[in-house]
Structures are given as structure tokens and as C-alpha cells.
């Protein structure tokens, strides 16, 4: 896996989506640093990672939380444009 040395910055939209969907900034950064990257729409990249959750979210118990980060790799930084979170 390629080591990430660039700083990772969350856009305002990504911060809001992460908050509303239950992902922490630490989970988002870990996902980008450790998960396999794939091409996404509009020349963006995405990656996803499963985390052990074992908690209640929206009044339902889930064992796993999957964080999917969509980002742009710029010359000097990685900018997260949105975050999706799936519970199962």
C-alpha cells in the first residue's frame, strides 16, 4: 500500500456529511491511508473501510460501520469532498 505523506483536509461539505452520517475524522483519514483506492466519478478517487461498530445508530443495532471517502488528490494535499457511511 502506498504511504500517504500529504496532509488530508476535509471540505466543509465532507465535515457536515461525516457528522450527519456518524463518521469521525479519524475514521475518514484511516480509510484514506489504509484502504485500496478506486476511481470515482468526475476524476475523483474513493476508498472504503469496514470498522467494528457494535452499537446503536438511529435506534437500530449494527455490528459494522463502513466508511467510504470520496476525495481529490491535489499536488500538495488530499481534499475529501464527501463521506458516505453504511451500517450493517
- Residue runs with pLDDT of under 50 for 5 or more positions: none
Strand content: over 45%
Structural class: alpha+beta
Count up the helices: 2
How many DSSP-defined strands? 5
End-to-end Cα distance: 27 Å
| Structural domain count | 1
Rg, nearest Å: 13 Å
**What's the rounded overall pLDDT mean?**
96
Percent range for helical residues?
Answer: 10-25%
Strand order of the largest sheet: 1-5-4-3-2
What is the N-to-C order of secondary-structure elements (H for helix, E for strand)? EHHEEEE
Note the main sheet.
Answer: 5 strands, mixed
Quick one: overall form?
A: globular
How would you describe what is shown here?
This protein has one domain. It has two helices and five strands, in the order βααββββ. It has helices at residues 12-21, 25-34; strands spanning 8-10, 38-39, 45-57, 60-73, 78-87. The protein has a five-stranded mixed β-sheet. The mean pLDDT is 96.
